[in-house]
Input
Amino acid sequence: MERNRAKKKTAVRVLLSAVIILVVLYLLQRLLMPKYMSGVVEGAMVSEYYDEKKDHDVIFIGDCELYENISPMVLWEEYGINSYIRGTAQQLIWQSYYLMEETFTYEKPDVVVFNVLSMKYDEPQRETYNRMTLDGMKWSRSKIGSIKASMTEEENFLDYVFPLLRYHSRWNELSGEDFKYFWHREKVTHNGYYMRVDALPAENVPEGKILADYQFGDNAYYYLDKMVELCEKNDVELVLVKAPSLAPYWYDEWEVQMEDYAREHDLKYYNFLELIDEVGLDFTTDTYDAGLHLNLSGAEKMAHYFGRVLAEDCGLENRRGEEELERAWEKKRQAYDAEIARQQEALEAGEPVK
Amino acid sequence: MRKKLLAVVLSVCMVSAFALAGCGDSGSGNEGSGNDADGSGENQEAENGAEGENSGEDDASGGKGYVFTANGVEIAVDADMGPILEALGDDYSYFEEPSCAIPDTTAKIYTYSGFEVDTYQDGDTDLVGSIILKDDTVATAEGVDLSMTKADVIEAYGEEYTEEGTALVYEKDGMTLSFILDGDNIASIQYDSSVIN
Output
């Protein structure tokens, strides 16, 4: 009897100790993981989606050429299109595929728009970018698939499962931000759109270097095929776009491959580099970094043009008037306006807007 | 019981602190290891892909591998662009291509008559990443220019090349010199640092 009681006591102690150790490690991990709330905010984008009501008509999936180049606010206000951009910096095509797969577990939009620049990458690139896309994803089959497809040779799967293993060396870089955002994060985007109001005209944009091989890789095509299949299976229309960014250079040889692919798979494909005049883009005023990305003025012009295309070519209905959505977007409008005001104030004071 | 629990918690904290301190030390002495996913924007040589191969080991003049000479100025990959820029003068056009989301990783493109020099950032220094010969007014130090053929390349550089797509690629001291062919003709000549490949 006495021995049993002692055994139980020991078991409780061991269990309690294990729980305490796990809690301490969890708290340490939470403290040490980057918060991406200032400077490099792009790492905070993926997780913002989970707070959204998942009832979107259009989901944009891709790299910075999407999340900086089109304003969901204008799509809503002018066309009643409820959209969200699931974008991250240098999002590779396998990451786009798995984000799409994950998105479909939450909702089935009418249209998914994918930016094709990432076809140029056929293999994993950099851990830094991987982390910005993968750390923010909730655990799921899709996240596991994305990690496995994305890891460079130097990376380990376990470092993603237990990020403390990767980030422990940040202990001497901790700042006030790590404590301030220990439990919560602020929004860094507007339905996935990263806003910049400043302007830097595009000048002397160089032509691309001549390449030894213009063929997109097998791995890139493999994931594009998987995207097509996944959209077909879920009855979602996949639309391909090439954003109107002047750099990195988009080669004619690449364009031919995308046009052929779209034709063969009966997909809509819009190359906005060929529609710059129609969209009304002026690269002396509509870009904040000399042609790589659009600023607010450019992103709103793009939304004004593309919203009409989505409404007319994809048959999206105008949902203005739906009370719940109206209320949600009104709130988003306030945050949008506040960010414009904040950035304009910074500009007038000669401070950086980011 | 409480004391034992407290002891366990303190032990965990101490072990963690020692572990973190140890890792932190090795981390700070291991810049350029290629790991900078911490969102700090620091350790930028790793961000540029330098990863210790060239940064910190070679002197700022680069000087390894095949070297291109223009107007008497030697331009080597991984060399400091500052003195080269000064020596080549002001007759160039300029474009900046920052990396998405990663600060201090801006590639700079200087286009001169007949050739282009692209740089990458290593800390506060811009190093030469690529040199691209754009027309036949310039030639490699071994005398090959864009008016020549595949046979001329092989005669000048030998048979020790690898074929990558339509390119003949010669490697020397880690850098590469590529002759991209259009049929038998040379379409482009490019010197590339291993850092940006």
User: Anything to note?
Assistant: Chain A has one domain: 33-348. The longest strand of chain A covers residues 237-242. Residues 115 and 148 of chain A are 22 Å apart (CA to CA). Chain A has a mean pLDDT of 95.
